[in-house]
Amino acid sequence: MDRHNNKQLLRLAALVIILGLAGCQDVYIPELNVENNHLVVDGLITDQPGPHVVNLGYTGIYGELRHRRAATGATVFISDSGGREIQLQEFYAGQYMTPVGFSAEVGESYVLHIRLPDGEEYRSSPQEVRPPVKLENIEARVGSDFQYFDSNISDRLYQREFIGKHVYIETTPQKEAPPLFRFNTRLLLQYAFSGNGGGQGPPPMNYCWEYRDITKVVRREVSRPESNRIRTAFIPRSPEEMRHYNFPPRTYMSPKVIMMELYALNKESHNYYLNKYNQLSDEGHIFDPIAAQLPSNIESVGDPDNQAFGLFEASAVSKRGFRIIMNYRENTAAIYPWSTTAHISTSGCLVEERPPFWISLPGIP
Amino acid sequence: MNELLETDILQAKGYSYGAELYVRKQSGFLTGWASYTYSSSMRRTTESETENQINGNVYFPSNYDRPHNLNINASYQLTRRLRLAATFSYSTGRPITLPEHIFWHGSDVMIRFSDRNKYRLPDFHRLDVTLHIGKRLRRDNRGGSWSISVMNLYGRKNPYSVFYKRTHGRLDPVDSFNLYQLYILGRPLPTITYNFTI
After folding, report:
1. Can you tell me whether residue B169 is helix, strand or coil?
2. Closest Cα partner for A262 from A301, A296, A230?
3. Out of B8, B100, B163, whose CB is closest to A32?
4. I need a labelling partner for B40 at 20 to 30 A (CA). Which of A302, A305, A319, A343 fits?
């Protein structure tokens, strides 16, 4: 047999092997032996003036749940180590609110108490409010990031790389270890355009903004216990590309402001968020953490076997704003502290009037 | 890739035991052997901190715990040249951990998994058959023999692994994850072999 035939034979063998192995992956629908649904708690109180909200709901069975199921009609209150009790009122199905102005105190411990209409009682472990996290340093560096998008032509997702700036923060290490925290990052972008003046006089100027959560962009919202440095944001270089990060398709002006909220966590809450991150980032690859279970801090009062899920979190919050100006040619960034006392809505426009948080730069109205 | 693999490794203790049975028939038209093994392999963590415990430090089946294992190999001489052979394998499915509940935390859909290795993959079983056609009797001893086989005769899809996959970018968070099973041979695979001596 000559070399040509050998090659053909090898190709044929490879094809047979590929065909034999391809299609060896099916969606698996497990037969579950699952008991009743469990209570789920998603509650947060902070050292900022309230009201703060505790959400109560129930789990759904894997493969069946489509919508959240609220736990209504419960009696909910929070107690502190001094015996003070703060009653929560249900203002919407399954959503319980503290009194207006209530704030947690740093160093104090709080326990969440829940009594469901069927008499079942639950409570959280004591949640200590840790001191607010202090920022030691912030820096931005040029880099790239990948995002996944739905394809218009097929059912598969496609991946796209963006050039932009990564924003890193460093926190002040505490006595023995880096502080434990999670964060939210919001990005403020502005744009202006001339409206239709109706032919009389110059057209009016519209001053608009978009203010959105970009925490998911970095796909990690919790610090590492062994490091006090973490990436908190990624901002694409081209303002037009912000539409790929859930911003409306606009041509945005250059000022970019990020607002960060750092939530100081105790060990229990941090462990919950770390496992949450592990679970969300699990893509089934080899060496991925397996079956990251979320350790709840809620337990049944009378029946230890009656599990409850979720987290009651008590945190001190520090809010910081920064304006970032990037020099891509030299890979340097000028970062200025930025703050406003004005409330910034998710989006909006003012006609012939700059909003109080508007940043004017040379060449920009 | 888990960047901190060493922090996810826990120490555990365990034990294993089992018994094997083997019978063989070497004479007559029907020959073959059968083996059966019963075994158990259990593990448990001994950590004092709750977050480092698996199943609350209670014994659970290890990944290699497959209590029943049966193999039967039989061969029947139909005629001088025709021999029919079959191999049947059966074993209990491998233990796995499955998602049982889902719930929302913030805007994220989270999964509550079962206790470690609470469930098992479907049992593994497969039948392979072969028909051997021997050489014709010739004085010069030339010619060859044929083997016609069908692996996995009844086309069972025996999963050897089930994995969980979360897909980024889906608008509906409930649709963003699924369980998938992997298997190697999911349909009957016929083969034909010609054996000859030059």
Report:
1. coil
2. A230
3. B100
4. A305
The verdict on A179 touching B (C-beta cutoff 8 Å) is no
**Among candidates A78, A167, A174, A84, which has minimal Cα distance to A126?**
A78
How many residues are recorded in chain A?
Answer: 365
**What is the span of the domain harbouring residue B24?**
11-196
In a domain, B6, yes or no: no
Q: Where are the domains of chain A?
A: 39-129, 135-266+317-351
CATH 2.60.40 applies to domain A39-129: yes
CB-based contacts of A30, cutoff 8 Å, min separation 6: A62, A63, B98, B119, B162, B179
Peptide bond into B95 cis (omega under 30): no
Q: Give this complex's ipTM.
A: 0.78
User: Which residues, numbered 61 to 80 in chain A, qualify as contacts with chain B under a Cβ-Cβ cut-off of 8 Å?
Assistant: 61-62, 65-66, 68
Residues of B in contact with A33 (CB under 8 A): 119
Nearest to B169 by CA among A352, A346, A244, A102: A244
Assess if residue B96 is contained within a domain.
Answer: yes
Q: Where are the alpha helices (DSSP H) in A205-310?
A: 267-281
Question: Is B3 within a domain?
Answer: no
Residue A286 has a pLDDT of 52
pLDDT digits (tens, 9 = 90+) for B52-98: 788 889 999 998 999 999 999 999 999 989 999 999 999 999 998 88
Contact A157 B169 (CB under 8 A): yes
Contact with chain B for residue A29, Cβ under 8 A? yes
Percent share of chain A, pLDDT over 70: 83
pLDDT tier at A161 (50, 70, 90 boundaries)?
confident
Domain count within chain B? 1
| Contacts with B110 from chain A: Cβ below 8 Å | 276, 279-280, 294
Instruction: Among A27, A60, A283, select the one facing B102 at the smallest CB separation.
Output: A60
Hey, is the C-beta of A290 within 8 angstroms of any chain B C-beta? yes
Examine residue B5 and state whether it is found in any structural domain, yes or no.
Answer: no
Instruction: Decide if B184 and A23 are in contact by the 8 Å CB cutoff.
Output: no
CB atoms within 10 A of CB A104: 26
Tens of pLDDT along A299-319? 999 888 788 999 999 999 998
